[in-house]
Design a protein that fits this description.
280 residues, alpha/beta, Trna Endonuclease, Chain: A, domain 1, 2 domains, five-stranded mixed β-sheet, 10 strands
Length: 280
């Protein structure tokens, strides 16, 4: 079995094999390396370990969402909590693809779902675009200041207003305070204040120590009802994720995280950012 980190693995229910084959053919015509055929896996007692290996050794996993997938025994083994945790740790790009109307488990809702049930060709082109663009997004040539400037442009592109860079006071480090405007569930205007912190890493991962500093800064600034947005090119450790969950419960602070693959996906949806920072 190949161990190619540029590989795309298509996960699907056996009943959806024809559409999996069609998608695979189109992607291969676009010179995208795809593995999708379960006959390549030995039919043995270790079959689920082999499937897990194929997930973890692929850069991207496309999951075909359908009624048959979630009613099959495979889904029980393929999509436990560890799968999503490992995907974040290993920076595996997950693309859920809806091929049939079905009840979608909540774990998939944090990802941008490509819908093939309305316009197949448009959906396929969206998948191709994601697969070709995301590998081009790399922060290796960035400096810490570059990342802060990039974040400022990112916030503007996603509609944040009144963005203010914040001075650093001792160990209190918040990069921006900004506002976003939208509508609540009833359609009334809604303004939100965001305290935004950026963290750029070359090797290490986002740690609990950084989170302690951010929470201290948040409490010092004392903005009532403000939310926290963390933007980093790295990924959070499991300990850091648990710390965030605990803070949200105990201190009633809403914390959003844009890290790793999520950040790349956000960039991929904005041509101006792509051209300025990654494709130039």
């Amino acid at each position: 079995m190949r161990n190619n980190r540029n590989r795309v693995f298509i996960s699907y229910s056996k009943r959806d094999s024809s559409i999996a084959h069609e998608i695979s053919t189109i992607l291969q015509q676009e010179n995208i390396d795809v593995i999708f055929d379960y006959k390549d896996i030995d039919n043995s007692e270790n079959i689920f370990n082999q499937i897990r290996y194929m997930y973890e050794s692929s850069e991207t996993v496309i999951i075909l969402l359908s009624q048959s997938l979630f009613s099959s025994n495979y889904s029980t083994y393929e999509f436990p909590k560890y799968f999503f945790e490992e995907a974040r740790k290993r920076k595996i790009n997950i693309i859920p693809v809806l091929v049939e109307k079905c009840q979608i488990p909540s774990d998939f809702l944090e990802y941008e779902i490509v819908n093939l049930t309305y316009d197949f060709n448009k959906g396929i082109q969206s998948i191709v675009r994601k697969l070709k663009i995301i590998p081009e997004i790399s922060f290796e040539h960035f400096s810490t200041r570059d990342f802060e400037e990039f974040t400022l442009d990112l916030l503007k592109e996603y509609g944040f207003k009144n963005i203010q860079e914040q001075p650093r006071i001792n160990d209190l480090a918040i990069d921006f305070i900004a506002e976003s405007y939208g509508k609540d569930v009833f359609g009334f205007p809604n303004k939100e204040t965001w305290i935004i912190e950026t963290k750029f890493y070359r090797h290490e991962r986002f740690s609990v120590n950084s989170l302690h500093q951010i929470i201290s800064s948040y409490n010092y600034i004392n903005k009532v009802d403000a939310k926290i947005l963390l933007i980093t090119n790295s990924v959070l450790t499991s300990v850091a994720e648990e710390f965030i969950d605990d803070v949200q419960r105990s201190q009633n602070i809403e914390i959003k995280v844009l890290d790793g693959a999520k950040l790349k996906k956000a960039v991929a949806n904005r041509k101006k950012l792509l051209n300025k920072y990654f494709l130039g």
